[in-house]
């Protein structure tokens, strides 16, 4: 083919809108301002087109999927009523009905009385656990000291087993849409992605607002390399890794070494145990952020204070706790078992 024909063909193709450009323009027309994705074919072309259209693109390291299906209704506890549908549409319908026939559960009812008594006893028990001075720390001691310093307008992201469950009861939110976590089924790996998305929006709309991402050590392992993404975009995220050397429970260093005397780790180590005393803070420092390794309440308070004061760098605080630490006893067995 002659060079003139090749040039003419190139000019013609250049004048055509590519599929990626059509997608980007359609998203922009729907007021989409941010895009998150794992770069690769064909995402790279779409990402470039999105940036060209004025959409801010954040390249992630880990891919996640979300699934909604009717079969999940009642999988945990059998409900009296189930609602299946788009949450925006269903919520709108409920609010419209409430406007027509306002209703409130009677505050003097027996149910409210029992609930208030239970709230009071739970609060007392949590405070008792938080006040313990023994080392290593337990979950409640850690969260008590974290809660003391959390900015009122911060966004709390949380995932893990005990880390997320206990954190829900201790770490407070005062504003709507300021908490993101792994949900009812504890889907692991979503925490850092949530934190990155929240921080991108916070950085644009509310400069100075902090995102506090609270991770169990196991949960952190699912998408820990997103720390590079956090540092690449220099996002206002403080990562707290609550490290008990395992999934639910682990071993301390001495117990781990003693166990290995009886055989290879593949044959003697319980599956829920992780390598004790892992220095996850080095993952953050490897990419230019600030890392802290803490073992006492005083070290935790100091490192968190420094992290919140530093608005120029993301940080990760690796918090060592008692490997056998657990949550308070649960009244309902379905809170700690799966019905799958």
Automatic annotation (TrEMBL):
<dbReference type="InterPro" id="IPR011766">
    <property type="entry name" value="TPP_enzyme_TPP-bd"/>
</dbReference>
<feature type="domain" description="Thiamine pyrophosphate enzyme TPP-binding">
    <location>
        <begin position="163"/>
        <end position="319"/>
    </location>
</feature>
<keyword id="KW-0460">Magnesium</keyword>
<dbReference type="InterPro" id="IPR012001">
    <property type="entry name" value="Thiamin_PyroP_enz_TPP-bd_dom"/>
</dbReference>
<dbReference type="GO" id="GO:0046872">
    <property type="term" value="F:metal ion binding"/>
</dbReference>
<dbReference type="GO" id="GO:0001561">
    <property type="term" value="P:fatty acid alpha-oxidation"/>
</dbReference>
<keyword id="KW-0786">Thiamine pyrophosphate</keyword>
<dbReference type="GO" id="GO:0030976">
    <property type="term" value="F:thiamine pyrophosphate binding"/>
</dbReference>
<dbReference type="GO" id="GO:0106359">
    <property type="term" value="F:2-hydroxyacyl-CoA lyase activity"/>
</dbReference>
<keyword id="KW-0479">Metal-binding</keyword>
<dbReference type="InterPro" id="IPR029035">
    <property type="entry name" value="DHS-like_NAD/FAD-binding_dom"/>
</dbReference>
<protein>
    <recommendedName>
        <fullName>2-hydroxyacyl-CoA lyase</fullName>
        <ecNumber>4.1.2.63</ecNumber>
    </recommendedName>
</protein>
<dbReference type="InterPro" id="IPR045025">
    <property type="entry name" value="HACL1-like"/>
</dbReference>
<dbReference type="Pfam" id="PF02776">
    <property type="entry name" value="TPP_enzyme_N"/>
</dbReference>
<feature type="domain" description="Thiamine pyrophosphate enzyme N-terminal TPP-binding">
    <location>
        <begin position="19"/>
        <end position="76"/>
    </location>
</feature>
<dbReference type="GO" id="GO:0005777">
    <property type="term" value="C:peroxisome"/>
</dbReference>
<dbReference type="Pfam" id="PF02775">
    <property type="entry name" value="TPP_enzyme_C"/>
</dbReference>
<dbReference type="InterPro" id="IPR029061">
    <property type="entry name" value="THDP-binding"/>
</dbReference>
<keyword id="KW-0456">Lyase</keyword>
